[in-house]
Structure formats: structure tokens, C-alpha cells
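Sample intake sheet
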Amino acid sequence: MKVDADQKKSKKKTAVKRPVKDLPLVQKIKSKKARIGVIGMGYVGLPLVIAFCKAGFKVTGFDISKEKVQLLNEGKSYIRHIDLTEFHRDYAESFTATADFSELAKVDCILICVPTPLNKYREPDMTYVFKTARTIAKTLRRGQLIILESTTYPGTTDQDVRAILETKKQKAGEDFYLAFSPEREDPNNKDFTIHTIPKIVGGYTENCLAAADALYKNICDKTVPVSSTRVAESAKLLENIYRAVNIAMVNELKILFDKMDINIWEVIEAAKTKPFGFQAFYPGPGLGGHCIPIDPFYLTWKAREYEFHTKFIELAGEINTSMPDFVVMKCMKALNDWGKQMRGARVLILGLAYKANVDDDRESPSYRLIEKLEELGAVVSYNDPFVPVIKYTREFSKYAGRKSVPISGDYDLFLVATLHDAYKKTNLKSYNIPIVDTRNLLSEYKNHLIHKA
């Protein structure tokens, strides 16, 4: 009986395995007949929608926000650097947005682009990913491809997400395909786009990889297939940990060189003239964005499972998260030199976005600066041409509704937090008030009003 059972099992495996080149889904993708579904219409998901539509696919965008869905179907963008006017005119028949997730049953390839934040204990908050996976599982059908793009810890795709999707007795690699391909989006960077940035792809099985790779080849000039989803997940973490650690290093040197009366910006400019063995990283008031402040802690958290202490990552995190305190001390000194105290001082923060010339304020250090300055009694306002009104966020809900104010001389201190081009064109010096500059905006100014931070 045992031999017969083993033979039966062996025959079953042989029956379900197809040569990669003969996978029906791969053929459907190559013929552009596969319908694409993208879950999460944000800074990652929306550019993917545009790219796949322009590549000739029919695309459905899924989002829990009915407001976003309505705007997208009207051809209106809620992300400043993404203009949908021409896209809506040319591809209205190729794209539809919906908040009805039962429509997932109608698409062939599903890309998950939802947030992976940290909770208040600096641990991974996988709520969005796991809830999305459970939603997909309700309508999952044979032959579909599921790809997670959200940055996460190694093992999320082949262990956690797979376990959720296999609840209907469907097996990954046999009944449906499962892969991980980390987003590498850099908002408003015209030098690097979805097409030109190499796309890392890892599949749960060989067929899973083949399906995902075939899909991305339609929108990326180069794909980088790797041996597993865990390698792909780890590669994304390495990229951002590398940046976080090096930024922490220059942030620490900034504090040291400040004590030594040495200009860190001039030091970096001199060092980067070396044509090999050096890459320039720059200091700032803290880390911002959806990647660098968050992603390293995903690996730190996972490492505990293996009784491993990630010293470099945690030390870098400590340095980077302490930078707002250094900046606040600089503000106090600047005010003191001007004969004023922090309590009651009117401070204008220039820049709420975490990055120059975008409206992306996720994890922006400006929020920490507002919080810390107000705790010391300062009256804080902000100016940002890209963020006219602060939207609701879980961590800083108390600031929701605040509006950007004009730059004027009605303040006791300017604090440059973001290097928007608009500030480069503004003669801040003419207001004759102290300026704390965290971005080297005023490198050419050398007087007692300018304080580098």
C-alpha cells in the first residue's frame, strides 16, 4: 500500500509540473492578454499602474480609499509629481480604479503595494500586508500570480503570506504563483524610473519566478532574477541599511566636526574628489521617507528570532533618531546669541516634506522638530510649497489641518529642514533673523546669523 501511495503521489507531482516556457500565464503575459491588479494606489502602486498601461496591459487599481478611487477614475492625481492628465486621456480604457476587492477574481497578476510601517515599539506592523493577503485569499483562483512589493523581513512571502493564501488548499507553485519584487521607487527622481531601475525578482518556485520575471520584463529594461523570495527581501533591506548606516556615520561626524569648528560639508566635498573607494553621503536633521527610517528595523526584529544582535543597525538608528535633538540645541543657541529664549520664540520651519521638491512627508524629521520645539515652549509654524495642508497620520494626528504659511520677517528664527528649490531662490538673509541650516542651503553665507546644523 505504501508503494502504491508513493507512486500515486509521484504521478500527481509529475502531472502538475509544466515546463516554464509552457506556463499558460507566461503565454498570457507575453501576449498582453493578462489583466494586472495593483493593490495600493500610492507612491509605489500608481507608477506601476501607469507603466503597465503604457506597456499595453489592462490594469485595475485597488484602494480602500473611495476618495482616491474617484479621483483616479476622473483622471485626477493626489500625488504632486504625478500628472495624470495625459495618462487619463490616452489610457482611460485601459485603467479603472475600484474599492471593490471582489474584482480581484478577474485579474491574472496581483501586485501588493501597501504600507509596512513600524508600531510604537519600533516593531514591524504587518497589518496591511496580512489583511491584503487575507482579502486576496477569498477570491484566489488557479493560475493567478501574487507579487508582494512592500518592503519587509525575510520570510514574509514564502512563509507568512503563503500560509494565508494556501487556506483554500491551493498550493503556491502548483495552483497559483507567488513572488517578491521589492519596489525601488525614488519619488520625483527623473534620472531613474521604473523602466531604468533594475528590477529584483524572487519566486517561491522556478515557475513562480518565471511568471513574475515575464511580467516585469514588460516595464523594466532589466530584471535581476534571484534564487528565492528571501534573497529578494534581504536585498531590499541591505540597500536601505547601507544608506542608513552611512548617513548615521556622517551625522555623527557632523556633531564632532561642529565641536571642532570644521565644516562637514566642505569635508565631504573634498573627500568625494577621490575617484575610487568613497561614496558621498550627507548629514541632515534626521531620516525621512518610507524606507530608510523603517526598513532596517525589520531585519533587527527578525534577527531576534535567531538570537542575533544587529549592532550596526541599532547604533545607526540611535544616531539618526537623535539628530532632531542636535538641531533643537542649535536653535536654542541661535536664539540665545540673538538675545532671545526658546519659550515664546516664533520659529518657522522651512520644509515639511522629507525630500526636496516632493509632497511626500512620510516619516519626515520636520514633525519631530515641531514636536520638540513646541515642548520647549516655541510657537512653531511651517512653510512648504508642496504640502499646503498637513494630512492626518496615525503618529502625528495632532498636526492634521495645519497650513503652510508665507515666509516673512515675523519670526525669531528660520529652520531650514528641506532643500526645496524654492528656498534656493529666496533671499532668506534679507530678513535679518537667525537661520539654522540643516541642508547647507546657505553655504555661501558666512556671518553670525547663520548656524549650521
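Comment: The radius of gyration is 25 Å. Confidence is low (pLDDT under 50) at residues 1-16.
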